[in-house]
């Protein structure tokens, strides 16, 4: 990590795409791409004596994430509005394809005890509960940028970024759960279109995201270092549970069924192939 790895722009772009989808975690993509540990360590050590090394690692990732959000927010909004089932099933396949990778990485038969399986169940139940209690309470057409609203958006950014770092929990899904997903996505699309009236929304959420990243990364880094397999078991539970969050319902026609099976298969194959490639590089 001594020099800028410009390939990380593409990795960051993939993470940025996932963060636009409620229920899909940027942390999941980072894990799948084999950079999760480095990503967490870099954020955790950003304000240490190794600032330069960590900054050079995070810079291209940040560029990629910003590019993805800036260029694809309108497309993602369109797909989720008009083609939600095939789109969500692509990400379902992506998530399902990472489960074999996680099992091979953690080796449950060798490393897991009863407590690890309990943690997996807790992770699944947590995401199931979130999927049953999601709501969207903010009307984007009548947003008033008051100080209390901006404070709420800042706090929402902290919570969303904390979730974003954990594979299985989507930052955008947390925004959806809190009722702010619509206004954030709408604000991003407006700012990209050079309408800066809602720029304070982006600033408030962005500051919250930065705060959450710094605090949460230290906790996650500590857990991965001192409770590695317990952390893996939580990640497995969260990833399995996230399938409930992404599931949009079943297709209503033969055409949509065909497209949906295709998108799910593509998502699964992409994830499974990348997972095997990552494991090969790690061994």
UniProtKB/TrEMBL annotation:
UniProt xrefs under InterPro entries: VCA0040-like
Signal peptide: none
Record key words, sorted: Membrane, Transmembrane, Transmembrane helix
Pfam families, per the entry: VCA0040-like
TM segment ranges: 12-35, 55-72, 84-102, 114-132, 153-186, 192-215, 227-248, 254-274
Source organism, top-level taxon: Bacteria
Name of the featured protein: Putative membrane protein
């Amino acid at each position: 990590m001594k020099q800028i790895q410009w390939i990380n722009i593409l990795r960051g772009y993939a993470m940025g795409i996932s963060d636009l989808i409620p229920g899909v975690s940027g942390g999941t993509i980072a894990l799948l791409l084999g950079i999760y540990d480095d990503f967490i360590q870099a954020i955790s050590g950003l304000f240490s004596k190794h600032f330069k090394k960590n900054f050079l690692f995070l810079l291209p990732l940040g560029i990629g994430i910003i590019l993805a959000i800036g260029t694809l927010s309108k497309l993602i909004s369109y797909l989720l509005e008009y083609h939600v089932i095939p789109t969500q099933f692509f990400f379902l396949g992506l998530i399902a394809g990472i489960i074999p990778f996680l099992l091979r990485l953690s080796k449950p038969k060798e490393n897991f005890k009863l407590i690890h399986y309990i943690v997996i169940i807790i992770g699944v139940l947590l995401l199931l509960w979130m999927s049953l209690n999601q709501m969207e309470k903010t009307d984007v057409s009548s947003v008033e940028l008051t100080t209390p609203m901006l404070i709420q958006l800042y706090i929402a950014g902290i919570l969303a970024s904390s979730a974003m770092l954990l594979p299985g929990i989507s930052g955008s899904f947390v925004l959806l759960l809190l009722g702010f997903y619509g206004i954030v996505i709408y604000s991003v699309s407006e700012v990209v279109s050079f309408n800066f009236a809602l720029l304070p929304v982006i600033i408030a959420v962005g500051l919250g995201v930065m705060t959450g990243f710094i605090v949460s990364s230290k906790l996650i880094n500590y857990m991965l270092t001192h409770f590695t397999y317990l952390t893996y078991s939580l990640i497995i539970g969260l990833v399995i549970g996230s399938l409930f969050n992404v599931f949009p319902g079943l297709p209503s026609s033969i055409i949509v069924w065909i497209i949906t099976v295709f998108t799910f298969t593509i998502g699964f194959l992409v994830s499974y192939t990348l997972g095997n490639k990552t494991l090969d590089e790690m061994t």
